[in-house]
Amino acid sequence: MKKRFNSLTSQLVKQRREVHELCRQFSRSPSKGNLKRLIQIFEYCGEQVFIEAGFYCDYGDKITMGDRVFININCTILDGGKVSIGDDCLIGPNVQLLSVGHDIDAALRLEKHNYADDIYIGHNVWLGAGAIILAGVTIGDNSVVGAGSVVCKNVDANSVYAGNPAKKIKSL
């Protein structure tokens, strides 16, 4: 369910600045120490999580990751809403998880409202390079999202989806 929020409050601007600086430090030097500092801001982070350099998020405190998650280079998570990643997920390079949106109506968009809608990624999911997952999407367990796909609707478990917009290609 979409939740309206104001991303320009002094508290959220300050939090974003601090988190963006952590992300920049990690990108410059993806050491174990910088990774530890980065994952400490997450709501929850499981065991054996590996994040490559180039990881960016806005707040961090709405991100949960299960065990054995691998996030490749240049992942962007806009986490105005909750972003949950299950166990054993593979996140390809340049993947974007975007839980935030804006008004479609041009007049309302001038008011600069932000809307957050949670993203849920099940267990053992593979998101191919450059995939974009939009707000409000749930991706079922054991699914594959093809490289370059734009996912704007839920993905069935045990399925392959690809394209823009992503469509079901086959069941696994």
What does this structure look like?
- The chain is an alpha/beta fold.
- It has a single domain (3-171), classed as Hexapeptide repeat proteins (UDP N-Acetylglucosamine Acyltransferase, domain 1, 3 Solenoid), CATH 2.160.10.10.
- 18% of the residues lie in helices and 32% in strands.
- It contains 3 helices and 20 strands.
- The chain has helices spanning 10-28, 32-39, 106-109, and strands at residues 3-5, 44-45, 50-51, 56-57, 63-65, 70-71, 76-78, 83-85, 90-91, 96-98, 100-101, 114-116, 119-121, 126-127, 132-134, 138-139, 144-145, 150-151, 159-163, 166-171.
- The protein has a 7-stranded mixed sheet with strand order 3-6-9-14-17-19-20, with no helix packed on it. The protein has a 5-stranded parallel sheet with strand order 2-5-8-13-16, with no helix packed on it. It has a 5-stranded parallel sheet with strand order 4-7-10-15-18.
- A hairpin with a 2-residue loop joins strand 19 and strand 20 (166-171).
- The longest helix is centred in the N-terminal third of the chain and has 19 residues, at 10-28.
- It is globular.
- The two termini are 29 Å apart.
CATH topology: UDP N-Acetylglucosamine Acyltransferase, domain 1
The first-level CATH class name: Mainly Beta
The biggest beta sheet reads:
7 strands, mixed
Q: Portion of residues in helices?
A: 10-25%
Which stretches of 5+ consecutive residues score pLDDT under 50?
A: none
Distance between the termini: 29 Å
Spatial sequence of strands, sheet with the most strands: 3-6-9-14-17-19-20
Q: What would CATH call the architecture? A: 3 Solenoid
Compute the gyration radius: what is it? 16 Å
Total of domains: 1
Give the ordered list of helices and strands.
Answer: EHHEEEEEEEEEEHEEEEEEEEE
Number of helices: 3
Basic shape: globular
Kindly state the number of beta strands: 20
CATH superfamily membership, which one?
Hexapeptide repeat proteins
Instruction: Give the DSSP E fraction (strand runs of 2 or more residues).
Output: 25-35%
- Could you tell me the mean pLDDT? 96
Q: Classify the secondary structure makeup into a structural class.
A: alpha/beta
